[in-house]
Amino acid sequence: MCGIVGYTGPRQAYPVVLKGLKRLEYRGYDSSGVALLHNGKLSVHKKKGKVADLEEEMIGKDLTAQIAIGHTRWATHGEPSDRNAHPHLSASGKLAMIHNGIIENYALIKQELSNKGYTFHSDTDTEVLLNFIEDIQQNNNCSLEEAIRIALKRVTGAYCILLVHQDNPDTIIAARKGSPLVIGIGKGEHFLASDASPFIEYTKEVVYVNDYELAIVKPDELILKNLGNEKVTPYIQQLDIELAAIEKGGYDHFMLKEIFEQPSTIYDCLRGRLDASAGTITMSGISEHIEQLKNAPRIMIIACGTSWHAGLVAEYMIEELCRIPVEVEYASEFRYRNPIVNKGDVIIAISQSGETADTIVALEKAKENGAFIFGVVNAVGSSIARISHAGAYTHAGPEIGVASTKAFTGQLAVLCMMALKIGMKKGTISEERYKKLLVELSDVPEKVASILKNADEIKTIAEKYKDANDFLFLGRGYNFPVALEGALKLKEISYIHAEGYPAAEMKHGPIALVDDTLPVVFIATKDSYHEKVVSNMQEIKARKGMIISIITDGDTVSPGLSNDYFSIPEADEIVAPILSVVPLQLLAYYVGILKGIDVDKPRNLAKSVTVE
Ligand code: M6R
């Protein structure tokens, strides 16, 4: 959460940072601000609302700067307001700081500073840390860098901080623990940001800063140190991402673009790995650890949100194809309970961003207990990718819309290949079934494309039901997690209350909600549960619920039970979720836009949840 960006170099710093903030806005958008440093003069400008509100506020001001840091906020401590927006200024007015994360022991430090006579102008933990740093610098008569190091040894929590000091006209000091930071290396210039999107048109050479590292960044110098003041050699990596990947490309919203990209993102995920005609799956992360994976006494899957739903589908896949017991855990629960993790257990971590705080901490805990971590991650080079012992990227490209879409289908494709490969090596799947599923999986991109051609049908359904107060999503087997995902998508971007349930479990409670005003979405594709699901549809129809069904081409029964239906191509039930989720993504999208909601930036949410 929160996006941070910084620039030091020969360009005008403000436009670089402002453009960067717009690209990072998906990380938080309740307020934003910049600190500009020009000829030893530091100025701070901030505004409640989106980055566009800040931009307007800046019209007519002197924006000349060699150095700038900027922040777009997702509030944790203190309501969204001008005064709580970052950057914050220290008591002396000489030091400005932006922060992504949470300082957990800020109240104690605030008390200590208050006792010394400090007053605060915001409700944030950030302002406390900033003044703590300045206080240390003044009392110890040390460099800013040293003061930051001393302060960070005292704080608990997560942070990525960027600081500029009026007396250091070309230097940004940055540090991270638990919140991401990447530094772009240009010719005589440096860029700093939460991810590489703010600067990919300037440079593809990057350094991912690690936890407990401090970066001293000048236009032509980058020094990395650990908190023990020892120099660390920066590991420079080459980015493989183009500007077009982070632009809307003619679509009204990133979410729509990302939904429509799925035929190619799924194809990219399978490309070079799955060869249906040769009957092979090439995944080095699996081949290199196949003994560990196939002999695992159990597999635990750890994730949050949509990624957790992908994990639930994987539970069905892995148990069926590999006969290994699987548990799917919410990272936020796993990290605080006392889970039993034994040496040899395999943990699959699923994350689009690779930066979700709860998932990271849960993995660190599992790793300490000797578990083997396999990461299924979209963001290349992200923290979870680096924590994992092995892994497979989803290759969906940057996902900017807050609602996860193409990352989910990419996760399902990777998890399906994993289950197939492990099952084949373990001998728990017949060769015939294995080969059939390879063909099924390789047909998915084309089938998704054919679903998208009929997106207008979903738009018509959305128009009809957009004013409902509640929705129920029901599915069984592989489609139960899809029901959960459909409900989550709708909630997130239309603000309509929605619940996902196993279709049969509905009669143990939620059926009480059913009347002639309740739309009930059935994911009723042709699979081994189909007849049972049709019975569940009858039960809803008997209570006058309005049925919207996602069915398989050629189904002659479900349309008669449905008020509206949408038909998708036939597919094996193991790969069907990759198809059946697509109309639900579209339904959420169209309901959201018909209700006038900014679907790429729905209220209260942020793309990357880097606080617990
Ligand atoms: O980046 P991650 O996959 O770890 O994120 C997990 C969730 O925060 C994420 O899936 C969230 O639920 C999305 N907004 C869902 O659309």
Kindly list the characteristics that best describe this protein.
Rossmann fold; 7-stranded antiparallel sheet; Glutamine Phosphoribosylpyrophosphate, subunit 1, domain 1; alpha/beta; 612 residues; binds 5-amino-5-deoxy-1-O-phosphono-D-mannitol; 8-stranded antiparallel sheet
Any chance you could write out the topology, listing elements then pairs?
Elements: E1 3-8, H1 13-24, E2 31-38, E3 41-48, H2 51-57, E4 67-73, E5 88-89, E6 95-103, H3 106-115, H4 125-140, H5 144-154, E7 157-165, E8 172-177, E9 182-185, E10 190-193, E11 205-208, E12 213-218, E13 221-226, E14 231-232, E15 236-238, H6 254-260, H7 262-270, E16 274-275, E17 280-281, H8 284-287, H9 290-294, E18 299-303, H10 305-322, E19 326-330, H11 331-334, E20 346-351, H12 357-368, E21 372-377, H13 383-387, E22 390-393, H14 406-426, H15 431-453, H16 455-465, E23 470-475, H17 479-494, E24 497-502, E25 519-524, H18 530-542, E26 546-552, H19 558-561, E27 564-568, H20 576-594
The structure holds 5-amino-5-deoxy-1-O-phosphono-D-mannitol.
